[in-house]
Design goal:
The relative contact order is 0.22. It is built from three helices and seven strands. Helix 1 (about 5-15) packs antiparallel against helix 2. It is α+β, with helices and mostly antiparallel strands.
Length: about 120
C-alpha cells in the first residue's frame, strides 16, 4: 500500500502513469513550478499533464528508477522530494524535484515545484 498523496503522485509520475496522476489532481488545481530555464503554470489537470509533465518527461524518456523519495508534513502542506534516474536519447541523467502540495477531498489542489533539471550521470 502506498503512502500519502505526495508519495502516490511521485510513484505515478515515476511510472509515467498519467492516467493515475490525473486521478490525484483536483479539477481546480493551481500549479506553479520552476525549472532551470523556465517558469511553469497550470490551472487545470489537463494543462498540468499535457503542457508540463509530458514536456518534462517526453515519450522517449525512460524513467529507470525512483532513486529517492522523501515526504514530510509542513503546517498545512505536504513536502515531497524525489529523484529519478532517466535514460534519454542523449544519455543517462538524474533529476530531482521538490514539491509542496495541499489537498482537498483527497486530491492535490495546490502544488509548487522546484526542479534541478536533468543532470548528466556518467555511465
Amino acid at each position: 500500500m502506498e503512502g500519502g498523496l505526495g508519495e502516490r503522485f511521485a510513484r505515478a509520475l515515476a511510472e509515467k502513469d498519467f492516467d493515475r496522476v490525473l486521478t490525484l489532481l483536483d479539477p481546480e488545481i493551481e500549479f506553479r513550478g520552476v525549472t532551470p530555464r523556465r517558469f511553469w503554470e497550470a490551472d487545470d489537470p489537463q494543462t498540468l499533464i499535457g503542457e508540463v509533465l509530458r514536456v518534462w518527461f517526453k515519450d522517449a524518456d525512460e524513467i529507470e528508477a525512483l532513486e529517492k523519495l522523501e515526504t514530510d508534513a509542513f503546517a498545512d502542506r505536504e513536502r515531497v522530494g524525489y529523484r529519478f534516474r532517466v535514460r534519454r536519447p542523449d544519455g543517462l541523467f538524474s533529476i530531482e524535484q521538490q514539491l509542496y502540495i495541499s489537498e482537498r477531498d483527497g486530491r492535490i489542489v495546490w502544488m509548487r515545484s522546484v526542479c534541478s533539471g536533468f543532470r548528466p550521470v556518467p555511465e
